[in-house]
Amino acid sequence: MGFLKRLGFFLFGLAVGLVFLAIFLKKKSDETGVEFCYFPNCRTLKDIRSKPLSYSDEVREMFENSELDTLDIKNLLTEGTVDFGKSDTKTKDCKTYFIEGGVKGEERILKVKNCTEKAVVESIADRLY
User: Fold this and answer.
1) Residue-level pLDDT at 13
2) For the chain, how big is the Rg over CA atoms in Å?
3) How far apart are CA 109 and CA 125, in angstroms?
4) What is the DSSP pairing of strand 106-114 with strand 95-103?
5) Dist. CA 113–CA 102, nearest whole Å
6) Ordered alpha helix ranges (H), the chain
7) Within its chain, how far is the Cα of 74 from the centroid?
8) Among 123, 68, 76, 121, which Cα is nearest to 94's?
9) Within 10 A of 98 (CB to CB), how many other CB atoms are there?
10) From residue 122, how far is each of 2, 17, 29, 50, 104 by CA, in Å?
11) For residues 110 and 78, is the Cβ–Cβ distance under 8 A?
12) Which of 37, 59, 94, 129 suits a disulfide with 115, CB 3.0-4.6 Å?
């Protein structure tokens, strides 16, 4: 059997296996609510969501003025994208992350200080291009 024929069989089997794996994992996550977080963005957001969340005075003032609410923050912590280039991930105690995402149709940047025991939302600002 020639090399190209063997390569074709291998690639076909690999493709079929990946399709079955994707279907199996999707079905499993839908039934149990299990979240598979292997990428850095997903793992960081999941770690922040797992801790008690507190807010700075600036963010509380935005809540009082009805500029945003806690659902907007939770949406950013679920659907947002962490900017690791701006974030301070080298410190041991509290790491600072900048999370970009949409809030009420506008692009915003959320600054979160992620400590070992809790996460503090420090500010939320308009995204500057």
Assistant:
1) 96
2) 20
3) 5
4) antiparallel
5) 20
6) 3-32, 40-49, 57-64, 70-79
7) 11
8) 121
9) 19
10) 62, 45, 32, 17, 19
11) no
12) 94
pLDDT for residue 32: 60
CB-based contacts of 103, cutoff 8 Å, min separation 6: 68, 72, 75, 76, 124
Q: Which two tokens stand for residue 25?
A: 């994992």
SS3 of 105, please? Answer: coil
39-85: per-residue pLDDT in tens?
Answer: 899 899 999 999 999 999 988 888 888 878 888 889 889 889 999 99
DSSP secondary structure code for residue 99 in this structure: E
- Could you give the percent of the chain with pLDDT greater than 90? 41
pLDDT bracket for residue 19 (50, 70, 90) = very high
Instruction: Say what angle helices 40-49 and 70-79 make with each other, to 10 degrees.
Output: 150
